[in-house]
Amino acid sequence: MSNAEKVISGGASSSSHSVFGEGTATEASDEFTVTTEEEGEVRSGTLFELDLLDCPFCCHALTRPVFQCDNGHIACSACCTNLRNRCPSCTLPIGVYRNRMMERVVEAIIVPCPNAKHGCTEMFSYGKELVHEKECSFALCYCPRRGCNYAGLCKDLYRHYYNCSSAREYFRCGYNVQAWMHISDKILVLQEGREGPLVAIQCFEEEQGVYVTVNCITPCAPGVSEFSFQLSYSSYGGAHKTMSFGLGEMNRIQKVSFQTPVKDFMFVPHYFLDGRPSLKMNICVRRRGGEEEEENT
Fold this sequence. Notes:
Structural class: alpha+beta
Order of helices and strands: HEEEEEHEHEEHEEHEEEEEEEEEEHEE
Strand content: 25-35%
Largest sheet: 6 strands, mixed
């Protein structure tokens, strides 16, 4: 039995039904209520396996067009191309004939945002909620303090960090502030005032030198904590060495990572450090698209 036959069963005619769904996935199973409506009569059923709406080969959500071979096996358009139009289940040609019933089923199933339990009320056709999830303002953010496992909405996280951190460092938009840190500490967190956004400055020591990154801990939602920054490093005494690095749009992350970055970093060679174990830096953070206060020099 094909995926479409498993999803639509019980003798209902697809041409005379509209299909819509509501519900949430549970930890035990992907339980989802499916309702069909025909001539004023409402019928309901439960779809326990949402993965029936995924491509059986790449396991991504099916999207139009959906193709089938003569034996009824289905595949998404991308897999048909990657498999050179040969069905991996039976080797028959696939990629010419569309399974329009399955296309209708997938597009008719409406699912909530994965962050619905945190307050998001957005609804999407199956599969499209994953695109929204990356930019959802209700996505959880994680405390950058070592040994703390707290996760919550960004505003709750900022309040939590202010209350639980004993050593606080602050920044003020449009002002230069010191960002001095020991390389062994690996991370310095600045907070915008009391219970404001958190900016994480991290350093990663490698054989050639130290990589420095700057990220705001916040969801990638439009209009949420959008900053730019300029970071500068100055060597200690002797031959004065300086370097600077900035981004017109600061990267936003939900959780700090201690993996050495591959992009968007400032690299300080070891010969700049003169054997010292700390970085003497200054940073100016600005709010994008907003009026800034005069820079404090």
